[in-house]
Amino acid sequence: MSLDELVTDGKRQMQVCNACRYCEGYCAVWRAIEWRREFSDKDMAYLANLCHDCRECVFACPFTTPHEFGINPPKLFSGLREELYRRYAWPSGLAKALAGNKSTFWVVSVISFILLLAVVMGTNGTAGLLNHHTGTGAFYKVLSEMFLEITFGALGIWFVGGWVIGAARYWNDLKSRTSARVLPRDVRRATSYALQLRYLGKESQEENFSISRKWFHHAVFYGFLLDFASTSLAAIYSHVLHVQAPYPVYNPVVLLGIVGGVGILIGASGLLYTKSKSGSANSGGKDNSSGKAFSVSLLLVAVTGMLVLLFRDTSAMGVILTVHLSTVASLFFTAPYSKFVHFVYRYLALVRYAQEERAAEEAANKPRVTPAAVKLRGKISKRNEI
Ligand code: SF4
Ligand code: SF4
Questions:
Q1: Which residues line ligand 2 (CB under 6 A)?
Q2: So which residues are the signal peptide here (predicted)?
Q3: Given its phi and psi angles, is residue 132 left (phi above 0), alpha (psi -120 to 50 degrees) or beta?
């Protein structure tokens, strides 16, 4: 389905759900639709990123196919997300070519590998690739420190810049329906929801699918954060303390990297396993396959990173390091167009949700002036005049 068709069908499904409301409390989507009487195109972009594909609702729903209503929120929202990644990503032409394509990561990895191999051979020859390098600065005998810093610095700017542009476009759509301001406490609440992966942990009616996904998501999320901390610490060691890699196994850089890598290995494999077990009937369609591609790409980065650690004192290190850096380069290059970007849009949707939730709480706590109270107040003021 095209984006327009998905949006039209989404509005129809949300009207049915708003009348039914059986799934109230399952996730943030259900409260967000309760606060609306009608749905705009931009509301659909908002709701799509509030859904995290737990599939609670579709397991409970009596109106899924073969019922004529054909209700299936996770499938609808995953299709929408996939189209929205293309719509908000920058540059648009590249986004159309790369987003939603399962083989993008592999193609970019192979191209990166060929390019990196050419640089290794061009600068250090076969000795750089195949010799046994040990001691401080061993990695830089394969690819120079300056080359690595410029290349991966540029890729970092590319993916963070891509995320920032996509986030600005998405936020522009989210805030266009309201004049209410976002307060710091809305951001705090949204951050707490994001860190706890709230709504992802309810017991599912089918095989504890949802609760497993919560733990695997946690493992990937916190594993990635630990690996990011390890890389940042390595930069401090290298540029501030002037101590070059590789570091001993007990060094915090390596320890953080190992724990983070193991987290990603467990989380990404677990997510692939739960996806394969959950079957296709209720699956999220296109987004589900790009989710699988993303899990595989994380898994490859983690596995090759672990292999670098295991074989860093052997002559295989040069080849393994080149393969690992190719997977990292591909992950960075495709980050604005892959499922990776969901984390940015979901966080912004949660900020908007926290803002709406606060507004709803304030409205509920506001003292109500009923017609009877107005009448009584009139009577009292008349009596006072007499
Ligand atoms: S998903 Fe089905 S059961 Fe849940 S609110 Fe919508 S129509 Fe009702
Ligand atoms: S699949 Fe889960 S997160 Fe998505 S709308 Fe249904 S209950 Fe909410």
A1: 23, 26-27, 29, 51-57, 73-74, 77
A2: none
A3: beta
